[in-house]
Amino acid sequence: GENVEQHPSTLSVQEGDSAVIKCTYSDSASNYFPWYKQELGKRPQLIIDIRSNVGEKKDQRIAVTLNKTAKHFSLHITETQPEDSAVYFCAASGGVSNAGKSTFGDGTTLTVKP
Amino acid sequence: DTEVTQTPKHLVMGMTNKKSLKCEQHMGHRAMYWYKQKAKKPPELMFVYSYEKLSINESVPSRFSPECPNSSLLNLHLHALQPEDSALYLCASSQRGTSGVLADTQYFGPGTRLTVL
Questions:
Q1: Is the dihedral of CA A47, A51, A56, A58 positive or negative?
Q2: Interface test with B, best of A42, A43, A108 (most B CBs within 10 A)
Q3: Cα–chain-centroid distance for residue A46?
Q4: A88 contacts: CB under 8 Å, gap ≥ 6
Q5: pLDDT bucket at A75, cuts 50 / 70 / 90
Q6: Distance CA B78, CA B21 (A)
Q7: Which of A22, A76, A101, B14 is buried most, with the most CB atoms less than 10 Å from its CB?
């Protein structure tokens, strides 16, 4: 089955700095890569996603890049703000053998210091 | 309605109790999911229903019993749980069924915080 590794497990940045979180996946058939933000006690919330036919996607301060050859994808947050502090999960899904399943990374706890 | 709702928000139960968790969506989504999430860990898939039929059971103990009465509702029946079953139980839904090769965005409900005493 699919295996997703996420790094770093914790990340602390100053307000205004950029933050980058990286994930690698193992199954080349995976075709959908969402990123979720989860604040304490709340649901995982989709913040951005990318499909395997696209190399980069941007939404205001958030961007995701995908390198299919290397099987890795990254989340980039620019001009970080204290409200960006949360746990971020990447996931990989798609392909016949993983139909209906999303494999999550272990999460990154992002702390943005004011 | 663009939301997945779950009830109750919190549940405390003893090991001999029987209780049920409920999940509802009115987005016309054809796949619904149950996840279990422990603190500081990613969600773990438990069950998937596609077009109201159970399509994935991730070897979950029989003390958890899912039910999909119709395309909008998903229940999780709990019986004889253990303290280690205490967790956040998340429901999610996605637009298409799960038989295709292309994966779909999953939308999560707010979860039920379950405590087993």
A1: negative
A2: A43
A3: 10
A4: A21, A35, A36, A37, A38, A47, A75, A107, A108, A110
A5: very high
A6: 8
A7: A101
pLDDT digits (tens, 9 = 90+) for B10-38: 999 998 889 999 999 999 999 999 999 99
Nearest to B36 by CA among B58, B62, B15, B18: B58
Q: Is B11 helix (H, G, I), strand (E, B) or coil?
A: strand
Closest to A101 (Cα-Cα) out of B2, B51, B44 = B44
Per CB-CB distance under 8 Å, the chain B contacts of A43 are: 90, 108-111
Q: Which residues of B touch A (CB under 8 A)?
A: 31, 40-43, 45, 48, 50, 55-56, 90, 98-111, 113
Which amino acid is present at B79?
Answer: H
Q: Could you tell me whether strands B87-94 and B31-37 are parallel, antiparallel, or unpaired per DSSP bridges?
A: antiparallel
End-to-end Cα spacing for chain B = 36
